[in-house]
Design a protein that fits this description.
This protein is an alpha+beta fold and about 550 residues long. It has a single domain, classed as Gamma-glutamyltranspeptidase, small (S) subunit (Glutamine Phosphoribosylpyrophosphate, subunit 1, domain 1, 4-Layer Sandwich), CATH 3.60.20.40. The chain has a seven-stranded antiparallel sheet with strand order 1-18-17-13-12-9-8. The chain has a seven-stranded antiparallel sheet with strand order 7-4-3-11-10-2-19, covered by helices on one side. It has a three-stranded mixed sheet with strand order 14-15-16. A hairpin with a 2-residue loop joins strand 8 and strand 9. The longest helix has 21 residues. The mean pLDDT is about 95.
Length: about 550
Amino acid sequence: MTAPHGPRTGRPPTRADRGAVTSPHTLASEAGLHALRRGGSAVDAAIAVNALLCVAYPHMAGLGGDGFWLIAEPDGTVRGLNASGPSAAAATRDYYRDRGHTDEVPSRGGLAALTVPGAVDGWRVAHERYGELPWPDLFTDAIHYARHGVPVSRSLADWLVDDLDLLTGEDSTARIFAPDGRAAREGDRLVQPDLARSLATIAADGARDGFYEGDLAERICAALAPTGSPLRADDFAAYRAHWEDPICTDYRGHTVYELPPNTQGFAALQILNIISGYDVAAWGDGTPDYYHHLAEAVKLAFADRDEWLTDRHWVDIPVAQLLDRDYAARRRELIRGERAMVMADVEPGLRFGPQTRRRAPQGDTCAFSAVDENGLVVSTIQSIYHDFGSAMVAGDTGIIPQNRGSFFSLDDNHPNRMEPGKRTFHTLIPGLACRDGRPWLAFGSMGGEGQPQTHVALLTRIIDFGYDVQQAIEAPRWLMGRTWGTTAQDLSLEGRIGDEVARELQRRRQPVRMLPNWDDNMGHAHAIRIDHERGLLAAGADPRGDGAALGY
């Protein structure tokens, strides 16, 4: 499980033989490990992790957001769980046009809060099938830290500074996150008593009575209604998270699973299909050939993604064709080793129709994984979309509604056009891989555009280069497309990649943009590898975040 010739890292993988948890916040990982030690399942651990992230990482996670799961049983059966909420029954394109929005849905405020938060019902559905601990026990740590205060982490402190004007411009967020008009510093206590009460209600009454069909939903919607949000309590009551079959492809003898649309999971699989025709190991990690060909494969996959991705129950998306090996071979022929394609000019291989404009997704996310003593493997991801979601708090609930619905198009010809009861294009993708019919790797990362790219980075570095999970996570990363807060479609490189590689990529006409050595825009990646031969787990956590990989 080690790679003696791989790069040195700041920490080794966490190795254990009974259970492991990894997440972007150490206290969340501790909450998950606590659940495992008490006899909980990997699902119990993941819910405990997520609940605490709602408290400790409010800029990236929350009760007002969506979630997605991949769960592998010991026999290799992999199940997908879609816990993304649809748009409100009143959320029509005319609703927004009547309020002066003819082009795009506002990205902040009440009009951005138009989709039902799905994450909490996802917890319920997963727990009903795989839970071992009593439901209320999963929220003990989250309630404690919401009530008594959670230490502000480095990531949260940085985002509080970046978003100070946004947060102080809205009374509901200023009261919690900037009560004296300044950003909290790393190590300060963030106390959220309203959120503690909401978590306690969900713990005591369950997801349905406590959140979707009870007083909490009524209070959320009553607080949002004056801000223009179309969400109503009936939308909450009608929502159910649902199981669905994942999609997959083979990459060098490993079956890699992603979720189907409305997620961008097929883009990650397309990238793998395209590069599977190359001898990636011969390129070597960190070489111009490696970064160039991966960036070109990303451009091709994203052209198809942007052409098609939406709720597959509304549009007949040709996923099987997009994942066909012959199709990947035809797309691969477009790549030139010495000259980059211009991302904005890359055409999709299959056409949807006369859509007029594409938008690049942005968002921040929490990815986390758990494995239990019985061999159940969970890869989960949860988000409120933009940093601090809609940038408002729903009354006295302490809950930030997500702004995921702001990615809907108001263009009548766009596949992701807004419709009542429709799920929007989702960047969130958990990752999971099996080998020889058994679970082998749970992995994921935050980062909007970067998620499929980081999935591929982790897999190529582990499979093609033999890295351990921590080496794969810490290796310098790239991002082809828009990083957070930018409009240019650059090839962003972490500074550790080096000047000579950057110059060669520029010579090949890649739009290189250098970032710091360790950059938050590259996402917080996490992974757990299962070594069946040794009977061990190896878990890794990203130093770009505030998390830890823990095991026992």
